[in-house]
Amino acid sequence: MKPSAAIHAPSDEEAVAFLCEIVSIYSPSTQERAVAERIVEAFRAWGLEAEIDAAGNAVGRVGQGTCDVLLLGHIDTVAGFPPVRLEGDILYGRGAVDAKGPFAAMAVAITRAGASGALGNLRVAVVGAVEEEAATSKGARHILATWTPPTFVVIGEPSRWDRLTIGYKGRLLVDYTLERPVSHTAGRERSACEEAVEFWLRLRAWVEAYNADKDSLFARVDPSLRHIHSEADGLVERVTMGIGLRLPVGFDGEALKANLESWRGEAVVSTRGYEPAFRAEKRNALTSAFLAAIRAEGGAPAFLTKTGTSDMNVLGPHWPCPIVAYGPGNSALDHAPDEHIEIAEYLASIRVLTRVLERLASNEKGP
């Protein structure tokens, strides 16, 4: 197939400029419109079909085939906007790693594959999803509800350019609130703060008992006390607390919720943001394409499972197709004040993703 004259393949310089530009647009969850509009503008300039969908996702498409590939990243970030700067081979800025770097790599890769004419029977879509960081996954849930299941899915998350992520833990968020009349500090009654601490300690003890016979991090529950705040006006004391739980595959969430209810006392306890853990298969056409592409770039590929969550948790349990998470960047820098990505790694991941699409297209051609 001849290269498409209608599609412009971004050069490395243009790919870097695109990443720098979208990182420079502040887009915390629920405030992604400006960056989505800029992404769609770039897609159209490159020759892709592009739109902002009903959820606010930035969507680009290329190819006319019958085998669908979805590359889904997210374009929202956590709050905070440290200075964006390019110092030599390193780009600093919120979202450089999580996850505008992986998204930009996917966008450039499908454009290059489309421009070269290598897509064959593949029709590829790249989506910059909204509200992944807000624990609502609004963008991914919209895709799940409105799209036909594709043939292959790649989630854009940092794994380093030569690693594939095939599993993420699940998540449950717990909100605790206790409000009651102030009691004298010399009295026998525990304060609202002490009651809250006791609730946390009971939960921690339960988690330790659950984890006692688990021999891998991916099989354990990980609790975190995210915030605690207390106040009193002389009449009423009030304490609020937020707890996060990372959950393993097969975890019985209902049993835990029953325990939370029994431990709460007079407090109001609610849960939200539940996502089941998910682990994908290692052996299929998609993982084979990635392993070959990484080796072709001189890498030694490996599989990862992560203790966080991603939009793989949203799509994976419902779509019976090969799925992995991939993208440049060190995930240890997610949400960090000095979040940064190496440009060489970003460009390497673009080459890997382009090779993956070419290999999938070649497989679809048949004998």
What gap, in angstroms, lies between the N and C termini? 16 Å
- Radius of gyration using CA atoms only: 23 Å
Shape: elongated
CATH superfamily of the largest domain: Zn peptidases
Supply the number of structural domains. Answer: 2
How many beta-strand elements? 16
Architecture overview:
The protein has helices spanning 12-23, 33-46, 100-116, 138-146, 192-211, 253-263, 285-296, 312-315, 343-365, and strands spanning 49-52, 58-62, 67-74, 85-87, 90-92, 122-129, 152-156, 160-168, 170-181, 222-232, 236-247, 268-275, 278-279, 302-306, 323-327, 340-342. With 367 residues, the chain is an alpha+beta fold. The strands form 3 sheets. Strands 1, 2, 3, 6, 7, 8, 13, 14 and 15 form a 9-stranded mixed sheet that branches. The protein has a 4-stranded antiparallel sheet with strand order 10-11-9-12, covered by helices on one side. Strands 4-5-16 form a 3-stranded antiparallel sheet. Helix 1 (12-23) packs antiparallel against helix 3.
Task: Give a quick set of tags describing it.
367 residues, Alpha-Beta Plaits, 2 domains, alpha+beta, 9 helices, Aminopeptidase, nine-stranded mixed beta sheet, four-stranded antiparallel beta sheet
Task: Give a short synopsis of this structure.
With 367 residues, this protein is an alpha+beta fold.
Task: Break the fold down into its secondary structure elements and pairings.
Elements: H1 12-23, H2 33-46, E1 49-52, E2 58-62, E3 67-74, E4 85-87, E5 90-92, H3 100-116, E6 122-129, H4 138-146, E7 152-156, E8 160-168, E9 170-181, H5 192-211, E10 222-232, E11 236-247, H6 253-263, E12 268-275, E13 278-279, H7 285-296, E14 302-306, H8 312-315, E15 323-327, E16 340-342, H9 343-365
Parallel strand pairs: 3-6, 3-7, 7-15, 8-14
Antiparallel strand pairs: 1-2, 2-6, 4-5, 5-16, 8-13, 8-15, 9-11, 9-12, 10-11
